[in-house]
Amino acid sequence: MRRKTHTRRLVGANARVIGSAHRQAGMALIMVVAFLAVLQALVAEYSTNTTVNSVSAANAREAMRAQFLNRSGANLAQLIIRVQTDVLDKNRQFLGDIQLADYTGLFMGAFGGSKEEVNDLGAMLGGFDGDAIEGLGVAVGAFDVQITTEDGKLNMNCANGSTASKKNLRTQLEAMLFFDAYNPIFEEPDADGWNRTRDEQVGAFMDYIDKDTGRGEDARGGAEDYGYQTLDDKYRAKNNYIDTTSELKLVRGVDDRFWTLFGGEFTVYGDCKVNIGAVTDPKLIASVIFLSAKSPDDPVVQDPRLLWALAKRVAEARSFGVYFDDLQAFADYVKSPDGALQELLGGADQGAFGGPNQEAQSAAANAEPVQGVELDQQKLGQVAKSGPRRVYRVEVTSTIGVTPKGEPRFSRKLVGIWDTEVQNQNMRSTDYRKGAWVFWREE
Ligand SMILES: [Ca+2]
Predict the structure, then answer these.
(1) Where does the pLDDT of residue 178 fall: very low under 50, low under 70, confident under 90, or very high at 90 and above?
(2) Which pTM value belongs to this model?
(3) Spacing, Cα 214 to ligand 1 middle (Å)
(4) What is the DSSP code (8-state) at residue 430?
(5) What is the rounded distance in angstroms from the CA atom of residue 235 to the CA atom of residue 253?
(6) What distance in angstroms lies between residue 163's CA and the mean position of ligand 1's atoms?
(7) CA of 233 to the centre of ligand 1 (A)
């Protein structure tokens, strides 16, 4: 019995040994599996991190490339504006109102284009290869420059100017809103529920910017109270010059509908008179004609439809190859727009760069007859001026790479405002003279 027991014990011990070996083998397997799982997670994380780092490094590289392309575009724009002010503007009496900015689109591809664009341009100019001339185009990406002027817009900061400037701006704003077509705006409340007349809307603009806190230009109309403090987001009127036109959206009555219609008419730069050669919007042209008509009873000025048709024709003048070198040229054209077109088609005035193209000629030939208005030179001189442009808006867009969908893989935009009358303040700059950037934004 004893022996048997021993044997059984032995068997039991052996069984325990074998059992523990089995348990250890399972442990190793679990450890290996667990280790593999952890390793897999580590590898995945490492791989994700590396991809993120590599992509963000590539993005930073493209951002820097695009930024420097933008700077190149801005430098090129500055050069074009310098040529305009120093060469063309100084010889206006011989050359007329030629604006280089109107032609930048034609040659911009040569400087900021990709290799393909430069080759296309070379082919167009006489079949030479893009490589034939050193330094054309850019190695990586491309940039495009647009130069426009702000001189054809209403400078809203004139609301804080001299008495004459204030009066002038008020009259122009009133004239701009005068058309019957805008009645719905003043018959219905704005987005904040404010009911206003045309007069109150103009007053809201003037009072928001003028220094005093009294209604009207002489501040005798009682306290300015446009309810800015009662709005959901309270704020105060600025009562000072504004920095960007976007601030005008804070003026009472300026909601999305108003802004869509008139937002493009405003600027915060330049003089208090619009440059007649640069006004392109029929709304503003109509206001200029309305304010400077020789007779207030003129049938065209009395009939908004006729006035609108005339304003549209004047707005198209530039595309027909008509340039308003001075106020007289503008008055002549407005007096007899159809006569001016006939003269143009007869080839009497070929304008700049060989005159209007075929398309413009046929457009001019097919233009509907429009009734003119005789203008008073003195009245015209009060609201408008002529001559070289003063303020330029430069917009540079740089793109790098192309996605499979054909869109740019990376793009950056730069907006700069160049004022030819502002003195560069850095005396040590080699560029110490008139003309400077007064606004600069990269996005
Ligand atoms: Ca004020």
Answers:
(1) confident
(2) 0.81
(3) 6
(4) T
(5) 15
(6) 14
(7) 19
Question: Do 342 and 363 belong together in one domain?
Answer: yes
Distance from residue 382's CA to the centre of ligand 1 (Å): 24
**Residue pair 418/390 in contact by the 8 Å Cβ criterion:** no
Q: What does the alpha-carbon distance between residue 41 and residue 38 come to, in Å, rounded to a whole number?
A: 5
In the block, residue with structure tokens 């060469």:
87
Residue 190 is part of which domain span?
Answer: 155-267
The CA 209 to ligand 1 mean position distance, Å, reads: 5
Predicted pLDDT at 389:
94
Both 383 and 393 in one domain: the answer is no
**Phi, psi torsion values for 178, nearest 5 degrees:** -70, -30
114, part of any domain = yes
Instruction: Name which of 259, 275, 215, 268 is nearest 241 in CA terms.
Output: 268
How far is ligand 1, taken at its centre, from the CA of residue 203, in Å?
10
Lowest mean pLDDT among 75-79, 128-132, 314-318: 128-132
Q: Looking at the 3D structure of the chain, how many domains does it have?
A: 3
d(CA 201, CA 198): 5
- Return the number of other C-beta atoms located less than 10 Å from residue 391's C-beta: 25
The answer to whether the CB of 303 falls within 8 A of the CB of 427 is no
pLDDT at 353: 46
CA 237 distance to own-chain centroid = 26
One DSSP character per residue, 58-115 reads: HHHHHHHHHHHHHHHHHHHHHHHHHHIIIIIGGGHHHH-S--GGGGHHHHHHHHH--H
